[in-house]
């Protein structure tokens, strides 16, 4: 499989994409990161089946660290969610 260096049908560069993704509300950002982790796991498993252990091992490390970050991001969302609720109640 060839991995592209740009995203088809996206006009911005990767830096702009990163900015747009990080501007998402944290629960949506968490979902996005979960999708990335899921696809990295799929890629890693393909490499494992092809017995490309070096690539499998590194991809495994990446999605393991990413899963830890996702867990932390869920905590961030839980903190922000409480603040958003308070802010919305104060507006009423």
In short:
The protein is an all-alpha fold. It is 78% helix and 0% strand. Helix 2 (26-49) runs antiparallel to helix 3 (53-91).
Give a topology summary.
Blueprint: H1 14-22, H2 26-49, H3 53-91
Model description:
This protein is mainly α and 92 residues long. The chain has one domain (25-91). Helices cover 78% and strands 0% of the residues. The protein has helices at residues 14-22, 26-49, 53-91. Helix 2 (26-49) packs antiparallel against helix 3 (53-91). It starts with 13 loop residues before the first helix and ends with a helix. The model has no long low-confidence stretch (mean pLDDT 92).
Amino- and carboxy-terminal Cα gap = 54 Å
**Average pLDDT reading:** 92
The number of strands is: 0
The helicity comes to over 70%
User: Number of DSSP helices?
Assistant: 3
Mind describing the biggest β-sheet?
none
Number of discrete domains: 1
Radius of gyration: 17 Å
Structural class call reads mainly alpha
Described by the principal axes of the CA atoms, the overall outline is: flat
Give the SSE string: HHH
Taken as a percent bin, the fraction of beta residues is under 5%
Low-pLDDT runs: none
């Amino acid at each position: 499989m060839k991995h592209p260096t740009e995203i088809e049908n996206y006009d911005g560069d990767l830096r702009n994409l990163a900015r747009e993704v990080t501007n998402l509300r944290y629960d949506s950002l968490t979902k996005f990161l979960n999708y990335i982790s899921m696809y990295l796991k799929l890629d890693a498993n393909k490499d494992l089946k092809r017995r490309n252990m070096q690539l499998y091992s590194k991809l495994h490390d990446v999605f393991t660290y990413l899963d830890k970050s996702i867990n932390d991001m869920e905590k961030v969302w839980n903190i922000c969610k409480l603040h958003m609720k308070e802010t919305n109640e104060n507006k009423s």
